[in-house]
Amino acid sequence: MPLEVIGAGLGRTGTLSLKVALEELGFGPCYHMIELFGHPEHVELWEAASEEKPVDWEGLFGGYRATTDWPACSFYRELMQRYPDARVILTVRDPDFLTRRRKAPRPIRSMGTVSPEAVRSWTSSAGPSGNATMSSCSSTECLERNATRMPRPSWNRETAR
Q1: In terms of CB atoms within 10 Å, which of 30, 36, 59, 116 comes out highest?
Q2: Quick one: which of 152, 86, 159, 97 has its CA closest to 128?
Q3: Above pLDDT 70, what percent of the chain?
Q4: What is the mean pLDDT of residues 82-93?
Q5: C-beta of residue 69 within 8 angstroms of C-beta of residue 15
Q6: The pLDDT value given to residue 101
Q7: Domains (ranges, CATH) in the chain?
């Protein structure tokens, strides 16, 4: 079954709420980062993707109709190419809200340190209240206007535990 919805938004932008909503609307099951806890065998596939090796996307997303959150959001371009009929939803949040939640930048596993400037560049079109907002994009150009690609995740078995 091909993916019908690709969530391009970063974590903490309403991706879990989007997952629940998509499943309620009949686009489930939806692949979200929490799926990794139940499928540790997916780590090898994400390792391959992060190293820009060929990935069996159908094997990874077999049985899923949608995806949101990390790590899949880092590969929205590849997923848009593989699933050209899928709708893309970009969730964003006010960058000041995200940086207020963290007193100082802290490492996110092996992805490096997240600075307030990086968060601002990732979430340039959030609503004024800090609430997550969504926009639907059907082209790479639309996403390029609204989001900057996150660094590729660097996977290893230690970070997945």
Answers
A1: 30
A2: 97
A3: 60
A4: 93
A5: yes
A6: 60
A7: 5-90+138-146 (3.40.50.300)
SS3 content of the chain, % helix, strand, coil (to 5): 40, 10, 50
Q: In angstroms, rounded to a whole number, what is the distance separating the alpha carbons of residues 159 and 19?
A: 23
Rounded-to-integer distance, Cα 31 and Cα 100, Å? 28
DSSP calls for 82-107: H-TTSEEEEEE--HHHHHHTSSS--B
- What share of the chain has pLDDT > 90, as a percent? 48
Distance CA 47, CA 156 (A): 7
- Model pTM greater than 0.70? no
Structure tokens at 95: 């960058």
Over range 32-57, report the average pLDDT: 92
Q: How far is CA 116 from CA 108, 123, 134, in A?
A: 14, 11, 21
Please give the single-letter amino acid code of residue 139.
S
Which of helix, strand or coil describes residue 23? helix
Instruction: Give the position of tokens 């997240």.
Output: 114
* Residue position matching structure tokens 């690609």: 149
| Lowest-pLDDT choice from 28-37, 88-97, 117-126, 133-142 | 117-126
3-state class (DSSP) for residue 147: coil
Give the separation between CA 64 and CA 30, rounded to whole angstroms: 6
Residue 137: other Cβ atoms inside 10 A: 20
